[in-house]
Amino acid sequence: MPLASPPRLIVFDLDGTLIDSRVDLCNSVNATLAQLGKPTLPEAVISGYIGDGASMLVRRAIGDPEGDITDEQYVTQALTFFLDYYRIHKLDYTYVYPGVLEALQAIRYTHPQTLMAVLTNKPVHPSRDICDHFGLSPFFFQNYGGNSFHTKKPDPHGLEALIAEASTLAGHAITPAETIMVGDTDIDVLTARNCGAHSIGCTFGLKPHSLEDAPPDHLAHTPADWLAFLVNPQQTF
């Protein structure tokens, strides 16, 4: 189904889409490993673990991606330390990608009726705190995290919930066909597909290589491409 021009709802991923949080996440993982007496990991390795939420990030880092460790207390200890450490250090090196604020301002100015929101697998409180800190929150009517629902992306439940909320705010039904999911990983693309929404993949993010596994409808090489796509939905970058 063709995209409505302009779309009525744009939902953004956070890490690798709006912000570069790689260093703070990697430092928090390595601090956790050191606390557990395990060897630290290269940043490139940890970066490949990002995207499925804090619990999976920690499980992958400690060598338990499939949940095979039977000592759940050990896993909980690792996750608790990681979250506590990250809560303190989440803004040490994290920054907003160049052009993001300008792109959001331009979308708000040129398409004032288009609603925007955040849907991330990062826990909701640090997600909202980071967006507050960098002045991103005023652009979004909602910011949901990986612990906001019983499932995470790529399950479509969170995106469906945002579409329902946006419909209430707009005073009319917004359909998935009028919705765009913007993210830097295959997880975001699959979330859009599972919901029936459109997708934009950001090649400047943390895991752009994963977009090869689930090609998005369009690619954005810079945040400015978001606006270019809204102006001309048939454009390719």
TrEMBL record:
Q: What keywords appear on the UniProt entry?
A: Hydrolase
Q: Which domain of life is it from?
A: Bacteria
Its recorded reaction(s) are: 2-phosphoglycolate + H2O = glycolate + phosphate
- Look up the record and give one Gene Ontology term from the biological process aspect: DNA repair
Q: What is its EC number?
A: 3.1.3.18
* UniProt-listed Gene3D superfamilies: HAD superfamily/HAD-like, Putative phosphatase, domain 2
- Which pathway features in its UniProt record? Organic acid metabolism; glycolate biosynthesis; glycolate from 2-phosphoglycolate: step 1/1
GO cellular component, alphabetical, reads: cytosol
Top EC class, one word = hydrolase
Task: Quote the Pfam families the UniProt record gives.
Answer: HAD_2
A Gene Ontology molecular-function term? Answer: phosphoglycolate phosphatase activity
Q: Which family, according to UniProt?
A: Belongs to the HAD-like hydrolase superfamily. CbbY/CbbZ/Gph/YieH family.
PANTHER family named among the record's database cross-references:
PHOSPHOGLYCOLATE PHOSPHATASE
Q: What is this protein called?
A: phosphoglycolate phosphatase
Q: Which organism is it from?
A: Tunturiibacter lichenicola
